[in-house]
Design goal:
This protein has 366 residues and is mainly beta. Helices cover 1% and strands 39% of the residues. The strands form five sheets. Strands 2, 3, 4, 5, 6, 7, 8, 9, 10, 12 and 15 form an eleven-stranded antiparallel beta sheet that branches. A four-stranded mixed beta sheet has the order 1-23-16-20, with no helix packed on it.
Amino acid sequence: MRKKIKHSWYLFAFVAVISLFGACAEYADDIDDGRVTVPVRLSIPAFSITRAPGDPLLMSEEKPVHAYLFIAIDFNTTTTIYYRHQTLDPDKWILSEWTSTLPQSSGDVVYVYDGNFNVTLPAQRSEGRVYAIVSREPISFTEPATDTDDMVTSSFTEDDIKNLKVNFDFTDYKLLGDVYSSPAGYEYDVLGDGVKYYGTIKDISSRVPKVDLMLYHVASRVDLMWNVNVDVQSAVKLSAMRIRGLKHNDCYIFQPTMNVGDGSATHDLDVSINVGNQWYGRHCFYAIPYRVADNANSYFPVTVNLWQGTDTPATKPSGYFTHTFNISAQPVDGGGANVFGSPLLGPGSVFTPWLRGEVKITDELY
């Protein structure tokens, strides 16, 4: 019997609602040699009803406990990179409202980190840029080798930071939804003197520099829905579902839409199927998006395995139904027009996309 399956995908520009901004709390005492200690406050999304376009909200009630900062400081013709890691107290996230000069997220309800988090800028500074990451799980970097609550000089160049790749060796890959960073390709008129990287430090030459930075999801949210046609429900009762080959190694952290290939390791995700969703259901998960090849016509594949009846991956390790959705990096409407005006993945893209897919099953799977 010929298998029939229909699917459609709707893609939305994905914008997260996590923020890193200069605190309005009192600045620490300035250091006599011209250095200045600046408090930093972090914010993360709280409610989906107030989210920025494309941001689905937190994946769980747990809060990030790791913050990583790379700070590029210019002076004359030299750029020095500083690095800072801080462990955060999960009990110090407080509900607040985020206001920003950025195009997104003004008025969103967020959790603001109310703990002690300071960075010290050197006396010799003419311009600076902050690249930041927050995560629930620790993230390992090749440089610098030792995490510290103090700022240390890094051997990285600024290009090293922009092109930094990491392995997400998480105990639970659902936590990919709780990793946020500052995309290196996001630019706007931060200082009123031309378009620059949006993490450029404001008033850096003053005694009260301003860090005004908002972070965005590193992974894409994928909303997967399924629907078994009523005519075949007596024969097709889904019993198991597995999403295969999801990327977690060799991932760009500050250019999350630039990944090519599934990396040196992948993981699978099992979706719980029961009598309540054996015919109709929805599952949302986070995945690191990538293109299978480095060209404009490439795509991001999402592979789904389905079992029916009483079969499971354990009882039927082969012979299950497999379908792969190839999500275009250049989204088009039914007439072939690019509906967003810019690519979702690859050169020209900035934010990880939000994907929505529907599986319509109109015949027996096998």
